[in-house]
Amino acid sequence: MNGQARHTDIWNDFLHIVENIIEPRPFTTWFKPIKPISLEGSTLTVEVPSDFFREFLENEYLDIIRMTLRRVIGPDARLMYAVRPVQSQPAMTLNAQYGTAPVNKPISLGGLRTDSITNPLVLPGLKKTEIDPQLNPVYCFENFVKGECNQMGLSAGISIADAPGKTPFNPLFIFGGPGLGKTHLAQAIGIAAHKKFPDLIVLYVSGSQFKTQYVSATSRNQLNDFLHFYMKIDVLIMDDIQELQNANGSQAALFNIFNYLHQNGKQLVFTSDRPAVELRNFEQRMLSRFKWGLSVKLDRPDYRTRLDMLKARRDREGVLISDEVLEYIAAHVKSNFRELEGALVSVMAHAALTHQENSVELAARITENIIGEEAGDLSIARIQDSVCEYFNITREELLSASRKRQIVQARQISMYLSRNLLTNCSLATIGAETGGKDHATVLHACNTVSDLMATDRSFKRYVADIEAGLATSENQ
Length: 476
Known about the structure:
- This protein has helices spanning 3-19, 24-30, 51-72, 151-162, 182-196, 207-219, 223-230, 248-263, 284-290, 303-317, 323-332, 337-354, 360-366, 368-375, 380-391, 395-399, 405-421, 427-432, 439-455, 457-475; strands spanning 35-40, 43-48, 78-83, 122-124, 129-131, 172-175, 202-206, 235-239, 267-272, 294-297.
- The protein has 476 residues and is α/β, with parallel strands linked by helices.
- Strands 7-8-9-6-10 form a five-stranded parallel beta sheet, sandwiched between helices. The chain has a three-stranded mixed beta sheet with strand order 1-2-3. It has a two-stranded antiparallel ribbon with strand order 4-5.
- Strand 2 (43-48), helix 3 (51-72) and strand 3 (78-83) form a beta-alpha-beta unit.
- 35% of the residues are buried.
């Protein structure tokens, strides 16, 4: 067995030994979140949530780690760390306070061969089939923190849950950056709809999961079974629809499923990291259907919403953290709910396990990395300033209506870089901050720059130089 195949087994052996050495609570807090990545020779590489997490492990458990590694790998054992980016960390797991996970009633799928749709979607029964809705009860409306950033989406979601398929919000298209609550809101709709209408068949599925199922079904010559299965759903929630970009076959399947469900009064909910108009390599007929209902954007939470979220998490965890500490975190960690949760968990864990008081000083030390990342974030204004400096023009000229060739190209490059480097910015936002242009003008500018880069070496060098300058300043 090679090292790549052995790293998980080695780590499981390591955990089994450590679990018998330390207390259950610190084991769950400090060792369970670690993920093995690779084993090269005697060097095991693992992924940890943060630098703080790594430092705490080495300060508190270095002897245990060293001893156990030598036991499972050998005398030359070494441990390497990879720090997981904050943006890719999962949301904090909470105990469900509002019931157990929803369960769909068993239904008959006629002649459908249930082995054509792999678990966890279908759990074969004797005569009928139970479809796992894949809903996490933690993601309910009761746990959703309301604010100006998500008020419209929440109101629409509640309306849909009260009358799925019977409101003008069909489909509901929810978009926004990572960690802003898209998945939570989408699943809350499914949970509430199922609670009110237990006979409805509800299903949550990610775009990548749908694509994988489609490929599997077509390879087995079972596409009709695949379509038949999805046409049995009453409330279909598809997360991260952008995962279907460039997947023409699965888009065509979704198109047929969409038409059937919509025509039969079934509810459709989609989430995306960008608005429908910015989804690349999607069939136009599919994009047009995303616009049939309501599109809502989830924005970055404001200070009051961030603070409300932190207080709700504190109360649910049952820990003592002063409002002053929460106010500090809310004022300094601004990007999204996920980073707020990460900061809060780090403060709670550090205070509990090192017996330190939850203080503003502790919060400042732990959130320093997150704050530093935000301070260095790119912005449309920074990109525009870099473009102006490169072409030796003023910001006023860049944002003007001037049709001089140099200024037009500089303006188009700034819009192109904003779109490609700032994934959370919509075309409308970029246009609004570039002299009040509309989204169609921004899209045209981006396409023009892409075309010129493919045919003009000098122009391509301009763009590359500016992008390299932005990367350098960001890392300083």
